[in-house]
């Protein structure tokens, strides 16, 4: 667990170690099957996998990158070829969102397991069944890592979490736990998931009222609450930017007074939260059909 957080070279060596990732996954599967999701070894295994999934998209060997980013659709020869990673073109991102991964291997080995649906379901199972905050945080954090990029892999993982594995109810529960870093990581994961336009209606229906509920009534009182507030505001921004329906949902959940209060604070300590709330307000005002409702 300590070595897995030793930086890029350490992660690379551990990902390449024959049988290591498979053994970690095997152990966790056994713990879940034996109804023992709270033992310390399971926590250690999940924390290692969490660390090994960090920056996975940009640290993958070229052979995997070519396999994963194989385009299934015929792209016009007039289009510029997109690189595997790091492109910021909106058109390219839209294409990447539509590009499915190659078919999953039924028996993934080694690094392939890190983004496989089997492990994604394991993380969601641990989020639902474990009561250890470190295990919950590491499971949420691994999913956050896997959904952090802009390529096909993060969007495919996001679809698996939301649509194939029905993970939103378990994530929603984590929004209401008392442990602040678990809550913060759950919100950060939802922020990543909400970038995927095809999932926004599902996410809004399932968790938008909960996000509004956990917004502080006034300016956040600590760094970690401030960071959580920033992520909530940008998640709500993603969900409402192109959807008047979702903006109305936010309004009916009494989110507007909270957002206004947060936006009006200009102290240096909480400027990020204030700025995020202001960006959200500006976006909400773009829905002209809601102006009269906003004014009321």
UniProtKB/TrEMBL annotation:
Entry-linked SUPFAM superfamilies: ARM repeat (SSF48371)
Residues covered by region (Disordered): 80-109
Annotated compartments: Cell junction
InterPro entries: ARM-like, ARM-type_fold, Armadillo, Plakophilin/d_Catenin
Keywords for the protein's UniProt record, in alphabetical order: Cell adhesion, Cell junction, Repeat
BP-aspect Gene Ontology terms: cell-cell adhesion; desmosome organization; heart development; intermediate filament bundle assembly; protein localization to plasma membrane
Subcellular location, principal: other
SMART domains to which the protein is assigned, alphabetical: ARM (SM00185)
Parts forming coiled coils: none
A GO cellular component annotation in the UniProt record: intercalated disc
Keyword Repeat: yes
Keyword presence, Repeat: yes
Bias (Basic and acidic residues): 94-107
Entry similarity comment: Belongs to the beta-catenin family.
The name this protein goes by in its record: Plakophilin-2
Protein species of origin: Spheniscus mendiculus (Galapagos penguin)
Higher taxonomy: Eukaryota, Metazoa, Chordata, Craniata, Vertebrata
Name of the gene: PKP2
């Amino acid at each position: 667990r300590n070595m897995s957080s030793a930086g890029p070279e350490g992660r690379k060596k551990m990902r390449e170690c024959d049988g290591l990732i498979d053994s970690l996954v095997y152990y966790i599967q056994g713990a879940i099957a034996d109804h023992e999701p709270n033992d310390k070894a399971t926590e250690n295994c999940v924390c290692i996998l969490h660390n090994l999934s960090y920056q996975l998209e940009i640290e993958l060997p070229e052979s995997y990158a070519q396999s994963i980013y194989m385009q299934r659709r015929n792209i016009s020869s007039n289009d510029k070829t997109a690189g595997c990673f790091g492109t910021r073109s909106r058109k390219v991102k839209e294409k990447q969102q539509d590009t499915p991964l190659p078919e999953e291997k039924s028996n993934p080995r080694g690094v392939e397991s890190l983004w496989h649906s089997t492990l994604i379901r394991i993380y969601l199972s641990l989020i639902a069944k474990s009561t250890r905050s470190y295990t919950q945080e590491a499971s949420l954090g691994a999913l956050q890592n896997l959904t952090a990029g802009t390529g096909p892999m993060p969007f495919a993982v996001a679809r698996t979490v939301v649509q194939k594995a029905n993970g939103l109810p378990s994530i929603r529960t984590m929004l209401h736990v008392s442990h602040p870093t678990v809550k913060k990581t759950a919100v950060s994961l939802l922020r990543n998931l909400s970038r995927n336009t095809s999932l926004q209606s599902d996410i809004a229906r399932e968790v938008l009222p909960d996000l509004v509920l956990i917004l502080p009534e006034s300016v956040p009182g600590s760094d970690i609450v401030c960071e959580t507030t920033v992520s909530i505001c940008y998640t709500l921004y993603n969900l409402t930017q192109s959807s008047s329906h979702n903006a109305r949902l936010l309004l009916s959940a009494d989110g507007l007074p909270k957002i206004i209060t947060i936006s009006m604070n200009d102290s240096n300590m909480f400027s990020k939260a204030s700025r995020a709330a202001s960006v959200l307000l500006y976006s909400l005002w773009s829905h002209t059909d809601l102006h009269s409702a906003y004014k009321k």
